[in-house]
Amino acid sequence: MDAPRKLKVATTSLAGCFGCHMSLLDIDERLLDLLEIVEFDRSPLTDIKHCGHCDIGLIEGGVCNAENVHVLREFRANCKILVAVGACAVNGGLPAQRNHLQLHEILTAVYATEAGLASGVQIPNDPELPLPLNQVHPIHEVVKVDYFLPGCPPSGDAIWKFLTDLVAGCSPHLGYGLIRYD
Amino acid sequence: MSQDTFLLDGEEIPFTRGQTIMEAARAAGKFIPHLCWHPDFTGHGSCKLCTVKANGHLNAACVTAARKDMTVENRTPELDDKRRTLLQLLFVEGNHFCPSCEKSGNCVLQATAYELDMMSPHFDHFFPDRPVDASHPEVLLDFNRCILCELCVRVSRDIDHKNIFALSGRGIAKHLVVNAESGRLADTDFSLDDKAAQVCPVGVILTKKKGFSVPIGQRRFDATSIATQVTEAAAAAQEEV
Amino acid sequence: MNENDIILSVLARHGNDGTRLMQILRETQEALGWLAPHTLTTIAAGIGWSRAEVEGTASFYSFFHIEPRGRYRVLWSDNITDRMLGNQDLMLQMCQALWLEPGRVSEDGLVSVDTTSCTGLCDQGPAVLVNYRAIPRMTAEGVEQMVDLICTGTPLSDWPAEWFNVVSQVRRKDRLLDHGLVPGQALLAAIERGPEAMIAELKTSGLRGRGGAGFPAGQKWEACRNSPGADRIVICNADEGEPGTFKDRILLTDHPDQVFEGMTIAAWSIKASRGYVYLRGEYRYMLETLQAVLDRRRAAGLLGRNILGQPGFDFDIEIHHGAGAYVCGERSALVESLEGKPGRPRLRTWSLSVKGFLGLPTDVNNVETLANACLVAVHGGAWYAGVGTAKSSGTKLLSVSGDCARPGVYEYPYGVTVAQVLADCGATNTYAVQVSGASGITLTTEEFGRRISFEDVPSGGAFMVFDRRRDMLEMARHFSHFFAHESCGFCTPCRVGTAVNARLMDKLAAGHGSVYDINELFKMHRLMQGTSHCGLGSTATNAIHDTLTKFYPAYQRRMKSLDFEPAFDLDSALSQARQMTGRDDSGAHLSNSEST
Ligand SMILES: Cc1cc2nc3c(=O)[nH]c(=O)nc-3n(C[C@H](O)[C@H](O)[C@H](O)COP(=O)(O)O)c2cc1C
Ligand code: SF4
Ligand code: SF4
Ligand code: SF4
Ligand code: FES
After folding, report:
1. pLDDT, mean of residues C534-547
2. Are C388 and C415 in contact (CB under 8 A)?
3. Cα–Cα distance between C19 and C276 in angstroms, integer?
4. Nearest bound ligand to the CA of residue C486
5. Which of A181, A156, A161, A180 is nearest to A171 (CA)?
6. Interface of B with A in 88-107 (CB under 8 A)
7. Residues A122, C232: Cα–Cα separation, whole Å
């Protein structure tokens, strides 16, 4: 029998803080073991700009602007298994704390009424910039998500257990101590 | 006379007349998930986390009397599945952002969700707008996390005899209010010494300036699960006898 | 009188009794327009309850206002049958004429316009309540005139009297509506039989509760009679909140003596001295007439002390008002409400027959059940059981509405087929029938041979007809909002579940749904059916479930993808940013489908 094909994994950070990616690196020397069985496609760890056909997509962060929607869809279209990694992807997290405010109030406060703004500052309207959504959403409200890995961030151990379960082809199960929401 | 028993997940559980399924199970070290129930008070029956199948019927264990020879299913995949869904409904109903909640690690809602392998809130969030009440010198009320279990309502009414809290409105708009025309806790006679100040299972009624005095990692549910703690407590009580 | 004196006089009229809080709040609001924060404080002090508890009650009921609501409060009855008669266009017309948004009070505090759950006028809709007075058969011209009357500040008493004319459209009479009894006749018969024999006849009759659950009335009376207690209570459940039901309205309007007499027979049988009619807030307009009937009965010795000369047979009836909460039709929620509290169903630890109103043994019966008890008293149980089916004796009043030529109340012996009712009411091209209201069962054309009876298709009384023009998804969606609005909020599955369902149904109706969302609905159905605390939650998904299984194409038509659709409309989620930046380029838009 052939040696099993390496699984292709892509990762990205939407409205997140890269904390979950840091946690991924936190699996330390096990990262080398991981690289034995997976190879990375689009990811901040590589420099690939667009997601190719992948086995697993790991999404950090929630959806807060139009670009997030496009990236998330690219991942969904290309990844057989899509995983929401971390509190922000799972439930919107810290960025979603703005959801009880109206976006136009926030924009006005930040770009117009906030004390200490330089004169002439206005709300950016450059078409190159992605527009913010009225609210921040967890990723499962925009695309179908196969698995959720909670934590802010999930610990290196939790990520390791989760990924090795996935790679081994069994339904990931974290168990007590590894499931944490904080 | 031999003790009356019933079957809980195939094990014989002794009970005394008038005990609920929950009370008898607890005494025997069996964990039935619960949120609105507290061992020191009578059952309330609102959260429905304790739903068990007693002789084939779904019932809330905290308000259902144990009966001789009844067969009760508790931790079956089917029931835990329903419970997980109930938890998810509670998570999206309020604003539960554990990383910034000082109750994290001490929270019964969170601990139960861990025990039941809840990996995500699943439903679309309601993101309700619930301003906090910081008016009181000693206590902060963060309504964002209220699960409407009415423990504070009941304890303030029945134990403290102060009636500080009540639920207002109905349906999804139901919310906690305090006993003051201004709506502010500072304008009630609430005090940190009230039993009601200690009873909230989640992070609503919080003592000011105490928030992170116990570090994460050493909190109530950090080392052992809520279910294990029930088993251990019953074993310890048994030893004392 | 200043405000404070008004409140104090209302309190005094009710003996500063907190268990009368509902009536205190209603009368205070009728005098002052709304229940201001300081009003609640004064009332709480007066009855010796905490302010928070008083707020808990005042905020629970739709018809109590803890925020100003305008001098004219217009509420459009919003049952699906009102919608089929075009209430939405009429409400829009009214709002436009008044420069108002639905739900908002006009800036001068003059008027507010909103919707309310079914008002029991489905056979003569579209209906409105203006300051809680019912006005049926609204038209575009009616709206125009009403707007004028409101803008000129004309008091309701000067509005055209014929507007308030609620008619009784009785289309088919049988034993109950053709009873031929005179006031006192049935009571005398019951007294001659004696209490035990009366209960025995009731058991022989097989009379079952007409409020929905179908519990044998004789058994209930007996349990009550056998419960120890200093006193006992008889309650007539006239909450009639189930959308599409209005048959109790007919009984209370055309046969109030039979209803009160049924209560008095119950009192005689179970040894009760106090009776209450829990009348839904929507039927406020009946209050004065019903009071007059009670006065007449008192004068005739049919109520009061030593009734019909029986020493020690003391019984009187009081009318209590609900204030817009469907859940208060549930018997234990009703009792809570009667005690001045939010209408939250009790735990089933005690049956009401043992510990009911104020801890006393309490019999709660539906209006129609009590009216039927008169027939049993006069004619005996065997006669009564002579019509109907094996497990459903007697007749049933059906409230027929929707797509048919002759809406109204029809009385049939149990066992009548759905097809027969449809033929009699002049329904053509019928597509579906919703029996027993929002919580009931949806029948398709193949099922029209089924029979109205406890054995087959039980009915609390509603019978709504839908013809081929109608969209059954829209009906289920409408009911999902009804339940979300009416959930008491006590238990998790119903409080959050009904809100989740309403959102999912909106998503599907807007064409943003997928099979994923449908599976969610099925999951919610299984959860809520099994774990809800009361019948509201456990039946709240019936219409969704029935339409999903029997009218699935109505859903499929709306689905964009079979797999998954976003939870919200992505393009409108950029609306605020577009507005603030003035951008409208392609990057400033998103589509909900994946391909773009
Ligand atoms: C949500 C809910 C609403 C109800 N509404 C009514 C009602 O409006 N009228 C009624 O008679 N029964 C209603 N019922 C049924 C009552 O709980 C009770 O069974 C009935 O009043 C008993 O009277 P009966 O035995 O004469 O039918 C309702 C039940 C539920 C769960
Ligand atoms: S109350 Fe509990 S579940 Fe809610 S945010 Fe705090 S820790 Fe998390
Ligand atoms: S504040 Fe806490 S104790 Fe009180 S109802 Fe809310 S969750 Fe329960
Ligand atoms: S099922 Fe609904 S109405 Fe009934 S108790 Fe629960 S929340 Fe209240
Ligand atoms: S613990 Fe039993 S219903 Fe909440």
Report:
1. 98
2. yes
3. 13
4. 4
5. A161
6. 91, 95-101, 104-105
7. 74
Tell me how far the alpha carbon of residue C225 lies from the centroid of ligand 1, in angstroms: 21
User: What domains can be seen in chain B, in order of their start residue?
Assistant: 128-210 (3.30.70.20)
| Phi/psi of residue C74, nearest 5 degrees | -100, 120
Nearest CA in chain B to A181: B98
- How far off is chain B from A88, nearest CA to CA, in Å? 10
Asked if A108 is an interface residue toward chain C (Cβ–Cβ < 8 A), one would say yes
Q: Which of these CATH numbers, 3.40.50.1220, 3.40.50.1100, 3.40.50.700, 3.30.1300.10, describes A7-96+134-167?
A: 3.40.50.700
Task: Calculate mean pLDDT across residues A23-50.
Answer: 86
Tokens of residue B18, six digits: 């008038």
Domain boundaries, position C17: 3-60
In a domain, C139, yes or no: yes
Q: Is residue B22 a contact partner of residue B65, using CB atoms and an 8 Å limit? A: no
CB C430 within 8 A of CB C403: yes
Residue C203: which pLDDT band, with cuts at 50, 70 and 90?
very high
Indicate if C406 and C446 belong to the same structural domain: yes
Number of domains in chain C: 5
B32 lines ligand 2 (CB under 6 A): no
The Cα B12–Cα B28 span in angstroms is 9
- From chain A, pick out residues whose CB is under 8 angstroms from the CB of B100: 94, 97
Query: Would you say residue C592 has pLDDT above 90?
Result: no
* Minimal-distance CA residue to ligand 1 atom 20: C211
* Both tokens assigned to B204: 């609503």
Classified as helix, coil or strand, C484 is helix
Best B87, B89, B97 member to test A by mutation, with max A CBs in 10 Å, is: B97
Nearest C-alpha in B relative to C55: B168
CA distance C150 to A63: 48
Complete DSSP assignment for B13-30: EE--TT-BHHHHHHHTT-
Q: What is the CATH number of the domain that holds C403?
A: 3.10.20.600
CB-based burial label for C553 (10 Å; 0-12, 13-18, 19+): exposed
Write down the ipTM of this complex: 0.97
- Find chain A residues with C-beta within 8 A of B122's C-beta: 140
Question: Could you tell me if C32 and C65 are in contact, meaning their C-beta atoms sit under 8 angstroms apart?
Answer: no
Answer whether C470's CB lies under 8 Å from C403's CB.
yes
C213–B contact, CB cutoff 8 A: no
Angle among Cα C449, C452, C454 to the nearest 5 degrees reads 125
The pLDDT score that the predictor gives to residue C594 is: 62
pTM summary value? 0.96
Amino acid letter, C96: Q
